Protein 1
Amino acid sequence: MRSTSSRNRTTRAAKPAAALLAAALALALTGCGGSDDDSDSGGSKTSGSGSGSSVTLPKLDGQTLEVAAVWTGAEQKNFMKVMDEFKKRTGAKINFVPTGNNTSTFLGTKIQGGKPPDVAFLPQVGVLHQFADKGWLKPMGAEAKAQLDKNFSKGWVDLGAWKGKQYGVYAKAANKSLVWYNTAAFEAAGITSPPKTWKDFLTTAQTLSDAGSPAVSVGGADGWTLTDWFENIYLSQAGPEKYDQLAAHKIKWTDPSVTKALTTLAQLWGKNDLLAGGNKGALNTEFPKSVTQTFSGDNPAAMVFEGDFVAANINADTKAKMGTDAKVFPFPSVGANPPVVSGGDVAVALKDGKGAQALLTFLASTDAAQIWAAQGGILSPNKEMDMSSYKDAITKQIAQALLAAGDNFRFDMSDQAPAAFGGTAGVGEWKDLQDFLRNPKDIAGTQQKLEADAAKAYATG
């Protein structure tokens, strides 16, 4: 099994800190009633390359940099706004390459074929560890490291390091403990306040279903969304210490704590009438559709669970207005521990040269963070950025609550695992939880498959 010393250093958190963050998030979101106009976009403050720039970049006239990431659609469009500024300041050209969901396989093939991109965004910290061990990553240079140390807390800095070397910057983060809801559906069902506990969540879902609304939209065609469901329930129910143990595969997936979490999850997934399109429909619904079918159409679903990045899809693909038609509440508490699960995308260099290092330097700066935040649908772990840059009040308050935790957060469990288990479509945890969504009664069989797949992946790294 791979060393987890760096991982544990960045994810260890006291229970009270997690509870305080969840309370702060709940308070912030309860006060969110504004639309996009409630907070000004700060993009104009950093969109130029004049005296307001916080970072000096080299001239790269004529150089083309290839950048690879999983994003498509609205997420890709928003990221390219950041790249437009980088091009303006350096004279470089950017060729963006979408990796698809199998990021590690896509990049591994390119690297082994001798044609790696200059910079890639890795959605799993476990992949960063694997690539670093293979010698595929280039350490950050002094200028990039200086920006990183200046603008990021130690927890986020350490997540981009492995075995004493700094490789990447988490330029994009996510709060994955959120449920977004259609206010019209809640009002039609007579629901005046969002649920705070899992028991209340199930009652709310049944009330919505009885009122004629598909209660919960699940993007089960993308297995990663299902891992996020499990992680929030497991963290809240089993607690931080068990979470860290399972993330490191120090306890097996056949552990009673996993049995309990899957049993809890089956309370929702086992009720076909509470899922938009039923279990079959959920398995055929990709993440973007899970959002659009909650905020558009003749009979939209009432709730959709996923991270802050849902806002990008709401803004780009629906007519719903943030803070008015679309609101959000923290993932309901299952046990004594309110869940606070974070994720993120780490930018790493796969080629030597000043172009790749210049891009990492820019991505670690407040300039890049503010331009990106102004587009909507992302959180930045950059603690020095101007918070008024966020496009809407809801995203700003989610970001403030996340930053208030400092280093007290739990990183996405599947993203800490080897990619063969936690980060590849059609296999491992993604596939096993899709099978569980198909048949939520098979808890023991699901655990056995999860343990077999985990044991194999962790043994080979």
Protein 2
Amino acid sequence: MSFGEEKRDAEHVNQTTGDAPVEASIQEYTPAEAKKIIHRVDRRLVTVLGLLYMCSLMDRTNVGIAKIAGMTTDLNLVGARYNVIVLVFFIPYVLFQPPATVLIRKIGPRLFLSAITILWGVSMIGFGFVQRWDQMLGLRVILGAFEAGYFPGCAYLLSTWYTRYELQKRNAVFFLIGSMANGLSGILAYGLIQMGNLGHLSGWRWIFVVEGLITIVFGVLGALLIVDFPEESSTSFHFINARESDFIVSRIAADRDDATPTPFALSSYLSNGLDPKIWAFALLALGGATNTYAIAFFLPEILHNSLNFSLLQTQCLTAPPYVAAALVMYLSAVFADRHHIRGPIIICNACLGLIGLPLLGFLKDSRIRYFGVFLATISANANVPATITYQANNIRGQWKRAFCSASLIGAAGIGGIIGSTVFRDQDAPRYRLGIFVTMGMNALIVVVVLMLMWRFSVVNRRGGVLEGKEGFKYTL
């Protein structure tokens, strides 16, 4: 996998730092040799993490497909029971994220990420054998606890390997691979439903059993292939040697001078919460996640009940909007990295949502409403890597980066709680409450980004020491 040509100022950043060992490590390789090393990192790091994230998204959102495939009747999901099942996942998902970003640094990414993947795969198999709705409720809590560390851990790990203006493409490809789950899970689920009555299990139960087994297999592969932090990765199954590890670390040191973590101190770690921009980034994540999860959990239901597509049509028509979102996500990331911008991309994506959601919610023609689904899905998904990269570009320090990743994804979990409750059965077939809430979240994103861009531009013009580093500039 190759992610294209990197700008020279991203590959050899700030080589006049005066740090001779850093310069020597960077200049040890020609640009062509350096590019080969980075592409090797791409293939190993981004691809493996993306595949496991695909399992994560598939396992947390497959209840939406199972619901219209018979789970509602078998588990007597009357009233708000389905919404509660979706919602409870996010309570442990939010609570366990801050300690998870500390544990990944202490335990190491390879062991930590692969272990939690296997554990949530095991719990996923259990979903196929529940007999009452409250049993599924308990399993969703367990699933949320195990999945809590994966996404913030990956966001943190990726940020330690790449310079600031290489990162959005990598985040986009990571999320693109993961979001394939939302596009393909409908088609896969339709095939699994045909296994109904095999082994005396309903078709919707096979969705959980088979996808849980797939997750366990990927988790075992992750134990072999996930790499640790760059300063430790020369021991990761000969992925890179010590000289190449020094080269990676030196690039990060030249870019933002935070390649090596300071000793952990709880008071110092928590004091990062005093930085208001961290909570501004968290608001962006909350707004984006509300849209992303609302679409992921309820798109099959909207297509089936609101646009009157058949079960087969519904399972197949969930894929095209995610394919379009993946294309926009990657192209916008290439543009953003090339031109060193973040905020305008997020605003443009949010505006797509402000166009697509009214088309979906207020018009009558099913074809136009389905086009609105495309715009809303593109908006929600393309902003995930853009938001993660926006905060990563404007934060320095390993533990501050870890805290920010946890707060960002924790806020996204709260967005998941909101997104899981706003599309209610009693609002069918128009789901006006869900449409208004998701539109409001896109408006919130636009306002917060404009405020951040204004603040960053003012501080950049003022100059001086920013984020503890002379010459550091915020990315707009």
